Amino acid sequence: MTKIFPRLEIPETLAAGPGPGNTDPRVLAAFASAGVADHMQGDVLRGMIECKLMLRDFFGTSNVYTYGVAGTGFSGLDCMFNAIQPGDTVVAFTNGTFSGIDGLTIRMKAATGEELAANSLNPTAASVTIVEVPHGTSVTGEMVDAALAQHKPTWAFMAHWETGSGRINDIQGFSDACEKHRAMGLVDAVSSLGIEDFSIDSFSGVVAWASCPQKGVLCLPLTYAPVSFTDRYIDHVRANGSSCYVNHPILAARHWGIIDGEDVAAPGYHQTHSGYAVAAFHEALRIILEHGLAQKAKDYTFHEKALTDAVLAMGCEVTSNMTSLVVLNLPGMLAGREKELVQGCRAEGFGIWPTLSEPVQVRIGILNQLSKEAIMDIVKRFAEAMNLMQAGVDIDAIMAQLEEYYA
Ligand SMILES: *Cc1c(COP(=O)(O)O)cnc(C)c1O
Predict the structure, then answer these.
(1) Which single residue of 92, 192, 285, 363 has CA 20 to 30 Å from 344?
(2) Fold of 293-406
């Protein structure tokens, strides 16, 4: 007998972690009100082309190969890494969970058949050097320069902002070192795009960028991961190939009206894109461009400082420097109880996160929480959770401090 479960109800929660962020109601409305239309219907295709044009503004680029990869952040990253062939030389810098996973993807793609078979789920590849930078510290230009000088790889990889540890890495230093040592730079910009105000075209050592739908872009997960590829990267892929179809950096661009390096008015079929996803992505890009990248970056800096000052006043130690995320150690008396605290908050619909790799820390994010009311709500909920564990936080004093900051 087939068991049919009751209709699935998912509650409203406050997403106050590294991402996904709380989606703007306009994005949800765009998703839910899109009509039933197939993937080659005129308005769906027009929407994709408009998204492509808005994305170029958003990335600050004239790269023709700028579009969305269907899925989440790792889908866009997979597309970017699909340029890496078995045996390619790569130097990858890792300083937390996500760049660590990117390092795994790189090893999987660069491994020879023999290396992959030897340990298929976690291969080592002789052609790949992983430079492990300790959790809680940033990748510096000097580190990149030294490693690229030594290994002279074809590719270099770094995360712009590492969300696992909340650290901003030195993108200018990375780009400069790539240029100096003639490596092609690949960047995971999942957590920085839409938060920091930067133009990718000013980093000439970087040939490819991949981001994600549901962090700084504030669209829904499983819509579109923004990617942007320079002509140099595309020429390399055209010359050397890529052993995939769906996330092929050149072929996937066809549906966005990019064929043979040109914008074309009539896109070509690549896969069955979703009109709902296109409508949501389109609205998210409109919202962010209306807000303005420079203003948005300022707003994140301003509100992140309010949150950081508040958790410092509670006796926590902050080890991150991202402006959308605070990564902290609890006060000494609560050390070792991070997961318990996070679980308690999550059970109440307050979606903060622990770190996903060692050491265990607490992560509180402010994606789309750029208002005094939102920050006060986050701070109050966190302070109350700490007090349930007998932290003895003076909540009134902390709220008064916040009132003063915002006055
Ligand atoms: C979240 C994140 C990812 C993974 O993104 P998904 O959308 O979960 O696939 C990759 N890299 C960084 C830096 C991230 O923050």
Answers:
(1) 192
(2) Aspartate Aminotransferase, domain 1 (3.90.1150)
